[in-house]
Amino acid sequence: MMNLPNVDLDLLERPTLDKVQAKELQHPPRILLLYGSNRDRSYSRLALQEAGRVLEYFGAEVKIFHPKGLPLPEDAD
């Protein structure tokens, strides 16, 4: 057994096949996408938007968090 002195093993429940089997979803998968650049021509934002379109094609409900107005290092005003 592994030595885990900082973990209460009574609270650490091992996964079993019964516990991890997916149940019938009541809604499509919900995915929040984040990017961290405020630049007008942000390649990470463009790639993220393309990923969002692909996820929506596969049936996911996608929301994109826009960091506009948040204090970021090297913020492009």
UniProtKB/TrEMBL annotation:
- Keyword annotations from UniProtKB, A to Z: Flavoprotein, FMN
Please spell out the taxonomic lineage of the organism that makes this protein: Bacteria, Pseudomonadati, Pseudomonadota, Gammaproteobacteria, Moraxellales
Q: Where is the signal peptide?
A: none
Q: What is this protein called?
A: Putative ArsH protein
Per the database record, which ranges form the NADPH-dependent FMN reductase-like domain?
Answer: 29-73
At the top level of its lineage, which domain of life is listed? Bacteria
- What is a single molecular function from GO for this protein? oxidoreductase activity, acting on NAD(P)H, quinone or similar compound as acceptor
Q: Which Pfam families match?
A: FMN_red
InterPro entries attached here?
Arsenate-R_ArsH (IPR014063), Flavoprotein-like_sf (IPR029039), FMN_Rdtase-like_dom (IPR005025)
